[in-house]
Design brief:
The protein is an alpha+beta fold. The protein contains two helices and seven strands, in the order E-E-E-E-H-E-E-H-E. Strands 1, 2, 3, 4, 5, 6 and 7 form a seven-stranded mixed beta sheet that branches.
């Protein structure tokens, strides 16, 4: 089974005008741009002034290790387990691994669900 590492930061999910006020060198700053919007996930303390909308109080964990692109169903399994317990997620994938955010109010329960499903939960 996979190992889960909680992240100690509390996060916000934002829409921003642009990334001019975002330091992309900060850890745990994730951006996404489409033809319709610019999104930002960052620690709450780093919310830029040009944020258009902000949803605060998200907590995150990462799946430890480097995940090979041939691995199938990792996010699906975790999201299904959490959905069965009415816990919504916001998922972010990087080249190496996946990060999953839940509302902070649901975070400890999410970790408990995963622990009961035999995931290893590291201390944060």
């Amino acid at each position: 089974m996979l190992t889960i590492k909680p992240i100690t930061e509390e996060f916000a999910i934002c829409q921003v005008e642009d990334y001019s006020q975002v330091n992309l060198e900060n850890p745990f700053v994730f951006t996404g741009a489409t033809d319709e919007e610019k999104s930002l996930v960052c620690p709450i303390v780093l919310i830029p002034e040009n944020a258009l909308t902000v949803d605060k109080h998200w907590s995150a964990f990462r799946i430890e290790g480097v995940l090979d692109f041939s691995l199938i169903g990792i996010l699906s399994k975790i999201s299904s387990l959490l959905a069965e317990h009415n816990i919504g997620i916001f998922a972010i994938s990087t080249y190496n691994t996946d990060y999953i955010l839940t509302k902070t109010a649901d975070f400890q329960r999410a970790l408990q669900v995963l622990k009961e499903a035999k995931y290893t939960i590291l201390e944060s």
